[in-house]
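name: query_chain
kind: protein
chains: 1
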Amino acid sequence: MADTFTKRKRSEIMSRIHAKNTGIERRAFSHLRKHRVHFQAHYGKAPGKPDIAVPSRKLAVFIHGDFWHGYRFSAWRRRIPREYWRDKIASNIKRDRKHRRALKRQGWRVLKVWGHELLEDPELACRKIADFMRTR
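structure:
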């Protein structure tokens, strides 16, 4: 299947996709700060650079976009038109698992929150994160 955009337009579209401070991440950060949950965003000293971390307590939260991190990937992978994207998402899933395992080996507790959870019920998703951050 050919791309419907020119190379220049596709480049422009892709340049707007960011790995940090996405809309769903900013929503979670704002909610946590409002409820006085202290954390570090995009903590670079831990494997995978968790989106939300409390290094002193070894707590890490990853906020995963459904498409890029493969939410229910096995159910819809055949509908993706290009092998490149199937391979890209599969490698993202593999990398995410590797980072979670590395964190757990180092004694971190890890929580994964999907983007659709924050979009569908932001209050519930943020409460899930806050409860995780407050537990021992």
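note: The longest helix spans residues 83-105.
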